[in-house]
Amino acid sequence: MSASNEVLFVSDLHLSLGKPAITQRFLNFLEQRAVRAEALYILGDLFDAWIGDDDNTPPNKSVKQALRRLSDAGTAVHLLQGNRDFLLGQRFAAETGVSLLPEYCVIELGGQPVLLTHGDLLCSDDVAYQAFRVKSRTAEWRRNVLSKSLWLRLLAARWYRWRSHYHKRGKTQDIMDVNQDTVRAEMRRFACQVLIHGHTHRPARHDFILDEKTATRWVLAEWRPEAGQTLCWRAGAWTVETV
Questions:
Q1: Rounded distance, CA 82 to CA 67, Å?
Q2: What is the DSSP string of the chain?
Q3: What is the pLDDT of residue 173?
Q4: Could you read off the pLDDT of 66-111 as tens digits, one per residue?
Q5: Does residue 1 register a pLDDT over 60?
Q6: What pLDDT is recorded for position 2?
Q7: Contact 116, 41 (CB under 8 A)
Q8: In angstroms, how far is CA 151 from the centroid of its own chain?
Q9: Before 113, cis peptide (omega within 30)?
Q10: Is the dihedral of CA 30, 36, 39, 41 positive or negative?
Q11: What is the second-level CATH architecture of the domain 7-242?
Q12: Percent of the chain with pLDDT over 90
């Protein structure tokens, strides 16, 4: 079991068969870096697409096995579904030892509440996406999708990725970024001065004033074939590490 007080945060790995370098980097990260931490938080889009917990096509099985080894070694692993892998369910959690988090989750670090979310809910200017998000999170929609055969879901996921890429080309960068008023509203709602999210692929630290106090919004990086990133908290200090 790890004796470290480190807590690590990652998001937007978008693991898939077509991204072997990123998959291998993540597996190495779990075995060599995350195993030394007290906890690992994966804040969405671990997979480029997730079509159901019964899908063991590569690289899903090897990733699940690596997460199981990490959780068995004593690192607490928490996962928040993203817009690409929101169908991750309880079977996945049972197989990996990962705990699934709600779409907004407050944790405590050094006595300070920290708000975690994937980030897509903060992009409130993207009205079309938000409408699809509401529909796709209903039990009826999930049942309809998961009742299809595995091969049909695989084809549908490929089509969805193409459709998503096509529609992004027609949207401005501002629409796909977070809305600062929404950020402030959610941080007030959960009484947090620190927010961590991914989704936008715009890694940065944003400091601003919220209700006359300094607030911080950390944006996690998308993992790429050449490198990834993890945000690390230890003893009250934040650092960004290249993976």
A1: 18
A2: ------EEEE----B-TT-HHHHHHHHHHHHHTGGGSSEEEE-S-SBS----TT---TTHHHHHHHHHHHHHTT-EEEEE--SSSTT--HHHHHHHTPEEEPSEEEEEETTEEEEEE-SGGG-TT-HHHHHHHHHHTSHHHHHHHHTS-HHHHHHHHHHHHHHHHHHHHTS-TTTTSPPHHHHHHHHHHTT-SEEEE-SS---EEEEEEETTEEEEEEEPPPPBTTB-EEEEEETTEEEEEE-
A3: 64
A4: 999 999 999 999 999 999 999 999 999 999 999 999 999 999 999 9
A5: no
A6: 46
A7: yes
A8: 25
A9: no
A10: negative
A11: 4-Layer Sandwich (3.60)
A12: 87
Per-residue pLDDT band for 174 (boundaries 50, 70, 90) equals low
Q: What is the pLDDT of residue 82?
A: 97
| Residue bearing tokens 């991750």 | 88
Two tokens, residue 66 = 């690596």
**Rounded CA separation 205/192 (Å):** 16
- Quote the tokens at residue 54: 């019964």
Dig out the tokens for 136 from the structure.
Answer: 């796709």
Residue with the two structure tokens 């997979």: 47
Distances (CA, A) of 145 to 12, 148, 150, 153, 205: 23, 6, 10, 7, 37
Cβ neighbours for 110, distance < 8 A, ≥ 6 positions apart:
233, 235, 236
101 neighbors 65 (Cβ within 8 angstroms)? no
Token pair 């928040």 is found at 80
From the CB of residue 25, how many other CB atoms can be counted at a distance below 10 Å? 20
**CA distances, 131 to each of 110, 128, 158 (Å):** 37, 5, 21
- First vs last Cα of the chain: how many Å apart? 22
Please state whether beta strands 39-42 and 76-80 pair in parallel, antiparallel, or not at all (unpaired). Answer: parallel
